[in-house]
Design goal:
single chain, mainly alpha, three-stranded antiparallel sheet, 9% strand
Length: 269
């Protein structure tokens, strides 16, 4: 009887171990399913929906967005950016913004708090324009929402002394052919910034439109370009249906990104 009880005990322990193993496997599958359906944002893209981000993470000093040109203007494919030192959100690695891969998803509660602060009041016209755009998100610049954002934020943010190159930068952002990376060297010497056309410490360089020519740019120019990419990238995620938050939370994020463009335009880091 003792031996029979021992055999039964061993069998029960084995069954328990197998059951625990199955539970762990099921929990892993649940986490994987959650990763598939979780809201994808520029700060935390869904890797199953954006497999090209895996290749992006392998480049230590070049980071960027990935996407396609299936509908409208794509702001994602081929756009690479390096880590930054200014307080912008999407696409940051160690200091914002940089790689869009390593950032935690935005906290909807924090975004919603924007509407509860005494110093902020929702403009009904701006809000209605955004609600109208979100019903059929696209990149038609004649829509009131996009027209206003371009006039008030994007175009001023990309308004540099070198007008011709500024126009090329805007087109490159919109067709995903801009590349920005950090310049090696601990103590860079001042050189002529291609966009500002004045001597500056240029810690970054860019190439646009598929060209092999590199243009050296300052921190100010990099931040302004990055903030614009952050905003347009978020619109792209909305268009693709990857942002599942409510209209108020999404509108709060839109305002925050527009605020970042305004700060970058004025030179705040």
């Amino acid at each position: 009887m003792v031996r029979e009880a021992k055999v039964k005990r061993d069998g029960a322990e084995k069954s328990l171990a197998e059951a625990n193993m199955k539970i762990e496997v099921l929990q892993a599958e649940v986490q994987a399913l959650k990763a598939l359906v979780i809201t994808s944002t520029p700060s935390m893209p869904n890797r199953h929906l954006h497999p090209q981000l895996k290749a992006t993470e392998q480049r230590p000093r070049e980071t960027g967005f990935g996407g396609d040109k299936s509908n409208g203007m794509s702001f994602l494919r081929g756009h690479k950016r390096s880590p930054s030192h200014n307080n912008l959100k999407y696409g940051r690695e160690t200091t914002p913004p940089g790689s869009p891969v390593k950032e935690l998803p935005p906290n909807p509660q924090q975004t919603a708090e924007l509407f509860l602060r005494d110093e902020y009041e929702v403009d009904p016209l701006y809000h209605q324009e955004f609600v109208s755009w979100r019903e059929n998100p696209n990149f038609d610049k004649t829509h009131k929402f996009l027209d206003r954002v371009y006039r008030e934020d994007i175009l001023p943010c990309l308004n540099f002394s070198n007008v011709a190159l500024s126009a090329d930068v805007q087109r490159s952002i919109e067709d995903n052919s801009i590349v920005i990376e950090t310049v090696s060297g601990k103590n860079p010497f001042p050189k002529r910034c291609s966009l500002l056309e004045t001597p500056r410490v240029c810690k970054y360089r860019m190439k646009i439109g598929g060209s092999d020519q590199w243009h050296y740019i300052s921190q100010l120019c990099r931040n302004r370009i990055a903030s614009t990419c952050d905003f347009l990238s978020y619109l792209r995620y909305i268009q693709q249906g990857l942002v599942k938050n409510g209209v108020h939370e999404v509108y709060g994020e839109i305002l925050r990104l527009r605020k970042n463009m305004a700060l970058a335009k004025l030179g705040f880091n």
